[in-house]
Amino acid sequence: MKMVFYNIFQVTGLILLSPLLLIKIIISPKYRGRIFLKLGFALETLTQKLPDGRKRIWVHALSVGEVLSAQPLVRKIRSTYPDITIIFSASTKTGEELCRDVMADDIDLFVPFPIDLYSIAKKFINLINPDLFILIETDFWPNFVDILAKENIPAILVNGRISQSSFKRYHRFRFLFVPMFNIFRFISMQTAADAIKMVQLGVEADKVKALGNLKYDAVLPDTVGWEKEQRPTSFYRKQFGITPEKIVWIAGSTHAGEEVAILAAYKRLSLLFPDLFLVLAPRNVERGRQIKEIANNLGLTVRQRTVPFQDEEVPGTPLLILDTMGELSRMYSFCDIAFIGGSLIPDGGHNPLEPAAFGKPILFGPYMDDFTEISSDLLDKNAAIVCHDEDDIFEILKHLLTNATLRKEMGEQAQALVLQHRGVTMRHLEIIDFIINSK
């Protein structure tokens, strides 16, 4: 009965709003180019490409963030089950473009996600005929999920999350959402708090688990190697001309507009802490000479990694520009403090998990938009600190440099967070393996 009311409401709304929707489709290229596909036109032609006799997994992601979460899972499914057919859909144009770009070698067929009109959703499901449907994080559509249940197609939700505002909305309309959530065979949430919220809504507790955030596996370095016996610190330090007594601060993947603040803060700090050694690693290694000029203008003597020691006036200068490729990870392994570049300016930030995996205290600016959840997790664990400008960098570094215990505690919390989430993909794959092989 609830679905009857949902469909009556949906169709009535569509009729009333159709003039506005038609105008939007006409004037907006992103809607005009995809609406016919989302209505199922040419779907028969697309699905004819699917091989017969193979099991099929349909993975759906809402937009860019969810596509990034899906990436490690899709790749693991492909490597584990090379004979399974993988179909992928995204609701937004940007999400679809990204998945086509980053997962072209892993996906057998990209399809648009259908508009949630009953007949259209049924057409998609019948033509694709998946053995398993995987929803990434969010994008719930009652008709679609209801048809999956009627067709006896198992569905799982992975990497689920519930914000406080979403929880209130789900609770207000729980007569619609809770039955839909209970259709899923398994619900994997990012955190224990998310799992508790699901159960509080009325979802069956035995199907809800907290397996961690897939985004960690998406951005964790391939070789973490945090075990101390695997990283001979003294050997690496000697390679980079860093003597044992130095405290190493790395500013990694910096962008134009950040180095002045970092170098100015370093100049002030070096007067208080003569053993401080700064390694500045620009995102674009070709900017090494430019950064050296900035440092020289501030009265700092600096050497570049690409310039042999014997060609430098002061080989032991405690300021190194790492203008090489592939060496930043090695330096994170033995640094004392790490700053993540691309974050003092609105550039989205860079991956903070590598220094976190090595157990280092982390600093970054306010613009970590590309790693919002991970940076928030680090902040919540007191493993990272936000700094906004030169004065912030100076004060925070001064505090950390005088407090070795705090540096150690922050690093331990950072590494614990990485360990907690490491292997998220494999935990999800165990569920997928059980369902796909029980059909």
Could you give a quick summary of the protein structure above?
With 439 residues, the protein is an alpha/beta fold. It is built from 21 helices and 14 strands.
Characterization of this structure:
The radius of gyration is 26 Å and the shape is elongated. Helix 5 crosses helix 21 and helix 9 crosses helix 10. Strand 6, helix 11 and strand 7 form a beta-alpha-beta unit. Helices cover 49% and strands 15% of the residues. It has two domains: 206 residues, 3-Layer(aba) Sandwich (Rossmann fold); 194 residues, Glycogen Phosphorylase B (Rossmann fold). The strands form two sheets. The chain has a seven-stranded parallel sheet with strand order 3-2-1-4-5-6-7, sandwiched between helices. A seven-stranded parallel sheet has the order 10-11-9-8-12-13-14, with helices on both faces. About 2% of the residues have low confidence. The chain is α/β, with parallel strands linked by helices. The relative contact order is 0.09.
